[in-house]
Design goal:
The protein has 15 helices and 23 strands. It is an alpha/beta fold and 505 residues long. It has three domains: 4-80, Archaeosine Trna-guanine Transglycosylase, Chain: A, domain 4 (Roll), CATH 2.30.130.110; 123-251, Ribose 5-phosphate Isomerase B, Chain: A (3-Layer(aba) Sandwich); 259-489. Residues 11-80 form the SAF domain. Belongs to the UxaA family. Keywords: Lyase.
Length: 505
Amino acid sequence: MNPAIRLDPQDNVVVARAAITAGTPVPAENLSALQDVPAGHKLAARFIARGEQVLKYNTVIGYAAEDLPPGTWMHSHNIAFGATDRDYRFSQDYRPADILPPSERATFMGIVREDGRVATRNYVGVFVVGNCGATAARKIADYFDDERLADFPNVDGVVPYVHEMGCGMEMTGEPMDLLRRTIAGHIRHPNTAGALVIALGCERNNIWGFLEQEKLVVGPKLQTLVIQDAGGMLETIARGKDIIRAMLPEANKIKRVPCSAEHITVGLQCGGSDGFSGLSANPALGVAMDLLVKNGGTAILSETSEIYGVEHTLTCRAVTPEVGQKLVDRMNWWLDYNQGRDTQINGRVSPGNNAGGLANVLEKSLGGAKKGGNSPLMAVYEYAHPVTQHGLVFMDTPGYDPVSATGQIAGGANLIAFTTGRGSCFGSVPAPTVKLASNTPMFNRMKNDMDLNCGTIIDGEATLQDVGRQIFELILRTASGQKSKSEIVGMGENEFAPWPIGVLA
């Protein structure tokens, strides 16, 4: 097998399929490696002059920092980061998605709620409006272990949703609005069968103001507890256990029935990326999302700072110029937000990404955007807003995975698909996470955390289309109740992380 992978005829770099030692011939490129090249890293495929564009997938990922002979190891030490010109071509490549008629769409075994929404899981949640209620929420939820839930086999768990905010912050404005709609989105989520909301009583995120603003009505499936009114922590914990205990019989009264795949909404995430992520797991997930869209479902692409430099690949296929402009507006917000800071959007990726072969954010974005496939961009949402449009949509979020996924779930994602090259142990509730490995060595090393190996593409054993179909089928099985690896391990309740936008007071 050729030791290097060529991604486009116009590229002036190729990617090492596995670690290449200095002097190793690369016959297909008529060159030999001049230095040791780690797996997933790049080699110059021809002479590249100083200042010349470095092309991967025929897209600019930087500029040569020096004259580079063929066979040179290409990475952040000799690829200079710089701005690139982008032609947004708003909606010029828009083509309506080819949607299957309802009778031909794939199905899964879902939970149909009274209002017609479809769930993939069935949780009871204990929420806090501020961090002061966190201990009570955790102790109440932890009480309902497997033994105490044995009589309620249809309940997936009682989980706490705790966070570090709710007080010492602006009382009104964007930070408070964002926090409130994030919590409310999880309370309203179809995967939430019942909710208890706990407050200390003096938070700036006042519990009654929160309920009123989010139009949440207290009733059998939504209860409240105020620690200062209940008589303290011990009394709150005892009463909280009673409230949850009373909710469980009703929450258990569900059954799974065949549902159209149009009811699946997948939040797309990548973390611990490497040089193979954009070659295997991300584009294979894109194939799966094109299949989901074809079956009437929804894919939420996010992590705005991680599509920087390739946002024009989305604006050109936006359903309207207005949708494309909204994406550009959010990108400009991020550029202003990060001005003068040592952050990813200004060039430097994390040490793990860098070690995995990604030279800068342009290269990372090139691979990350591929998770959305080739479907038209139908809408752009701000963080944690309800997603109502089917098809491929974009939600503005940070690149930090727990914060990003929390916003997607608040918006209605009932499943998260997470690609990784270095290895991630992420999990989420109430929507489950499936993890897709970009390379076989990492998959074999972390089999208890990875749901599917996309490294077979790099190994030459499967095509993108093959693995994309496998991912789509994995999503259908997981939405039907099959536990993901992160669920088996017990991850998710600590990854609820509303975006801490703004400055603490």
